[in-house]
Amino acid sequence: MLRFFDLFFSVLALLVLSPFFLLICLLIKLTSKGPIVFKQTRVGKNNTDFQLYKFRTMYINAHNKGLLTVGGRDKRITTVGYYLRKFKLDELPQLINVIKGDMSIVGPRPELRHYVNYYSVEQMRVLNVVPGITDYASIKYRNENELLAKAKHPEEFYIRHIMPEKIRLNTVFINNPSLKAYFTIIWYTFIGIFK
After folding, report:
1. What is the pLDDT of residue 63?
2. Which of 19, 34, 50, 121 is found 20 to 30 A from 165 (Cα to Cα)?
3. Domain ranges in the chain?
């Protein structure tokens, strides 16, 4: 049933928002060099890698200068990219990932292999399900960049504090993948964008 809603909402959103997508593509292309869509290898269900799609929000090769985005005004982020990230619009191409079956709308956010390598055996359980665009952890840590900006050692703080808590929150939906939880997470994600 959840797969039905994933497909229904993804196809509907792509059709309805297509003019908006074209505007975003145009803004990205006119304001900075590089591709419109950024592809990044993430870890999906059954510990299998897949290509996650996002609208590009950074300058070319900026991701080579660090895996984490620290603070809302990270110098690697373009002007247009700042606003795409602020309103989570950079995530919209992941609707294609949903249609392909790589992701669900709701589920644990897919992590980079670098950080999955730090997972304990118990934490690896999150890889038993299809990852998602949003979940309880995404809602709680919607301002994750700001938390990292305050940390003396951002990556260490992420691995030791944020990542374990996000995985704990992931298991809440994994243990109760109900339609009620599915729509509750989508609703609070939408509300959180405008806070």
Report:
1. 65
2. 50
3. 2-193
Cβ atoms of residues 99 and 128 within 8 Å: no
> Per-residue pLDDT tens for 52-80?
999 999 988 776 666 676 656 678 899 99
Long-range pairs of 48-53 with CB within 8 A, sequence gap ≥ 24: 49/113, 50/97, 50/102, 50/110, 51/102, 52/94, 52/97, 52/102, 52/103, 52/110, 53/93, 53/94, 53/96, 53/97
Q: Which residues lie closer than 8 Å to 74 by C-beta, 6 or more apart?
A: 145
Give CA–CA dist 159/118, Å, rounded: 8
Structural contact between residues 68 and 155, judged by C-beta atoms closer than 8 angstroms: yes
Digit-coded pLDDT (tens) for 65-122: 666 766 566 788 999 999 999 899 999 999 999 999 999 999 999 999 999 999 999 9
Contact partners, residue 94, CB within 8 Å, separation at least 6: 52, 53, 54, 103, 133
With tokens 């964008």, the residue in question is 193
- pTM for the full model? 0.91
